[in-house]
């Protein structure tokens, strides 16, 4: 059986967020379970592409509106990621460095999908499943069923995964001329609130849709940036499947990025050695518990609350805690965080930007991970943290609520229900007090590290879904 995953992100080729981690892992584990899994994504001028061998396997052309576009399909030669990887290159459209933020990105995404369809037609490729990740490839099920040139794919089953329902790819109807010719009687499947809405089209036209946690699926029925009624109406073809983590990359026992590797038995001492090494480069005290935030500076992630949280904690608990932040994003948030660094607060440091190796090192060094997210469809950071023996302190929403059970409920993390500085600080103080109970804290570290959030389970659920719809 053959499944093609279509996405604009895939780790380690191009990563902006958790979408890349999922697309970089799920196909590998599906391959291990006997499926032929492949990823198709845009070509990027990035280190992975430059450093690995690719072969041109197909060339072709198509019209996007009145513009004739040439495209090439490049296949990675050695399956270094554990699955087939194809890159679509279109000069002037899909040959850039960044994934997002270009003024014509809507046209880029249309061109990407059109090129995939043209390639399938030219090479007579008829997969068993086409798995579409988020709105960037949301037009595929519609075009497979109702476009004049590509409806030979009409019987191919399609699965949609909603990684974040807040972003929907809204496009003015003037852009409809850029789409492959389609049955105009079906235009309503593209429309939502007077615009072409690729995410809405994806949910309407796919054979099944998934969200990246059960909790997030329930939340989409209530609030989905205007699509909540659609998600609810189409609920009979929905399922929530929690993301997994790739234990070949995220395992402190074999993680080559760490100062000191460790397993369940040496968890506390191994983490302390990593923290001590971290303290030689950054302004933290290795003798105190370390709280970290890793993520985008965005209100969605609750990052706008960080300055107040830091001020509150450093004023009241200066002698009991170190804090480290790894992130970048909203300039206003970043400026406020930088001002705290400039103030020279003790036992507090920041790395602005994103560094994958440093992220691994922080998970291995930290005692607590803070996630004050307003929206978190699944969340991977808390799963990485627990695998590394780091206690997550989370807002109980979406996938965080599904995966982090509070200590008071015989769990292994700490949750809070409202995004107030008082409640967040109280949750952190609970964590500090728990840290002081060394025996129980170390037992909880070992408990977290043995939880099974592997992709083996999640990949099997996706394959079960594929079999159901086929």
Overview features:
Starch_synth_cat_dom, 9-stranded mixed sheet, glycogen biosynthesis, Rossmann fold, 6-stranded parallel sheet, alpha/beta, EC 2.4.1.21, 470 residues, Glycogen synthase
Descriptive report:
The protein has two domains: 2-244 and 456-469, Rossmann fold; 267-449, 3-Layer(aba) Sandwich (Rossmann fold). The strands form three sheets. A nine-stranded mixed β-sheet has the order 3-4-5-2-1-6-7-10-11, with helices on both faces. A six-stranded parallel β-sheet has the order 14-13-12-15-16-17, with helices on both faces. The mean pLDDT is 96. Strand 16, helix 13 (398-403) and strand 17 (414-416) form a beta-alpha-beta unit. 36% of the residues lie in helices and 20% in strands. The protein is built from 16 helices and 17 strands.
CATH architecture of the largest domain: 3-Layer(aba) Sandwich
- Describe the biggest sheet? 9 strands, mixed
Give the integer mean of the pLDDT values. Answer: 96
Q: What coarse outline follows from CA principal-axis ratios?
A: elongated
Task: Give me the CATH fold name of the largest domain.
Answer: Rossmann fold
- Helix segment count? 16
| Beta-strand percent range | 15-25%
What Rg do the Cα atoms give?
Answer: 23 Å
CA-to-CA gap between the ends?
11 Å
Domain count: the total is: 2
Helix/strand class:
alpha/beta
Low-confidence stretches: none
CATH class of the largest domain, please? Alpha Beta
- The strand order across the widest sheet is 3-4-5-2-1-6-7-10-11
Oligomeric status of the shown chains? single chain
Bin the helical content.
25-40%
- Give the CATH H-level superfamily of the largest domain: Glycogen Phosphorylase B
**Record field, number of beta strands:** 17
Domain Starch synthase catalytic: 2-230
Family: Belongs to the glycosyltransferase 1 family. Bacterial/plant glycogen synthase subfamily.
GO molecular function, one term: alpha-1,4-glucan glucosyltransferase (ADP-glucose donor) activity
EC number: 2.4.1.21
